[in-house]
Specification:
This protein is an alpha+beta fold. It has two domains: 109 residues, Beta-Lactamase; 170 residues, Alpha-Beta Plaits (2-Layer Sandwich), CATH 3.30.70. Helices cover 46% and strands 23% of the residues. Strands 2-1-5-4-3 form a five-stranded antiparallel beta sheet. A hairpin with a 7-residue loop joins strand 9 and strand 10. The longest helix is centred in the N-terminal third of the chain and has 23 residues. It is elongated and about 80 Å long. The N and C termini lie far apart (120 Å). This is Putative diguanylate cyclase YcdT. It holds the Pfam family PAS_7.
């Protein structure tokens, strides 16, 4: 009878350390504030946390499958419309091809429920891991900051800063396409009297209605902006390659705006403790227009010339359109 005794203390210690390391890694993953998933080199899911289930809305029955693969998850998502309309198997094949490259990546994805995820993927020994961060609130705050920085809070129209960007873009387009553009400055003719007699709240209602009327008169690609007070700018791009034809187009739109703004406004006056009163107010606009092509001036020039034409319209009796002649 042969009896062999071996000291396996080191092996047992190593095994215990491995178990402790595995448990520690599991605890780190589970307590991570974002979603975490880990796949091996054969694209089998080896680890994930509860936040991953929550952020991606994966059912327990799916993730509890010990043989679950990356392909299975992509197919499940594609079938429930997570990626929009697509050929499911083609999408799965393309996704698997990318995953097998094991390259770091970062992108944002908007889920059908409106949640915005920032997704980070990176290779790790034995496979790759992906981290999912919910940035929905951050995106909302960024949108609010952008709105405050570039849009007028009262009318929701672009402000002077945004207008500057749009004007530069329009000039660049004019240079590339050799097409004319036009800029209009509009000033409401009898707005101050309304503000002085009935107050700013009623004046604000008129400005909001005027903004909506102007936007309804132009194309989606055009810009209606508020400079401040009762002064607005309309920017028309991509007109004709012929200046006379472009002038005709600009005049037609200016006349459409002038007529729309001259229609009576129904304004509600609120009195504390009393019934609301609705008044009808007439308000016209004086409009100055410059038809230009890129190399005829700077953004400041075009605004100055349109403003000059607008004051000529006011001086001539208001509720009129005047063009600035660049050749005069």
């Amino acid at each position: 009878m042969l009896c062999v005794i071996a000291d396996i203390t080191d092996r047992k210690l190593a095994e215990q350390q491995l178990i402790e390391h595995h448990d520690m890694l599991g605890a780190i993953i589970e307590n991570f504030p974002g979603g975490v998933s880990m796949f091996d080199t054969h694209l089998r899911l080896t680890a994930h946390n509860q936040r991953f289930r929550q952020l991606l809305d994966f059912p327990d029955a799916l993730l509890d499958n010990p043989e679950l693969s990356y392909q299975d998850l992509i197919r499940f998502n594609a079938q429930r419309g997570e990626y929009g309309p697509c050929d499911v198997e083609q999408y799965v094949a393309a996704s698997v091809t990318r995953a097998l490259q094991f390259e770091p990546h970062k992108f944002e994805r908007v889920r059908p429920n409106g949640v915005v995820l920032e997704i980070h993927g990176q290779p790790v020994p034995g496979g790759f891991e992906t981290i999912y961060i919910d940035i929905t609130e951050r995106k909302k705050i960024e949108a609010q900051v952008h709105q405050l920085a570039f849009y007028d809070p009262l009318t929701r129209l672009p402000n002077r800063r945004m207008l500057g960007d749009r004007l530069n873009q329009t000039m660049a387009l004019s240079k590339r396409s050799a097409r004319y553009a036009a800029i209009m400055i509009l000033d409401l003719d009898n707005f101050k009297a309304l503000n002085d007699t009935l107050g700013h709240a009623v004046g604000d209602l008129l400005l909001q209605q005027a903004a909506k009327r102007m936007k309804a008169c132009v194309r989606e690609v055009d810009t209606v902006a508020r400079l401040g007070g009762d002064e607005f700018v309309v920017l028309l791009g991509d007109l004709d390659t012929d200046k006379a034809a472009s002038t005709t187009q600009a005049n037609s739109i200016a006349e459409k705006i002038r007529a729309a703004l001259a229609e009576p406004y129904s304004l509600t006056i609120k009195h504390e403790g009393k019934a609301d009163a609705v008044i009808e107010h007439q308000c016209t606009a004086s409009i100055g227009v410059v038809v230009f092509i890129d190399n005829e001036g700077s953004p400041e020039d075009f605004l100055k010339w349109a403003d000059s034409a607008m004051y000529r319209a006011k001086d001539a009796g208001s509720n009129l359109i005047r063009f600035f002649d660049l050749n005069a």
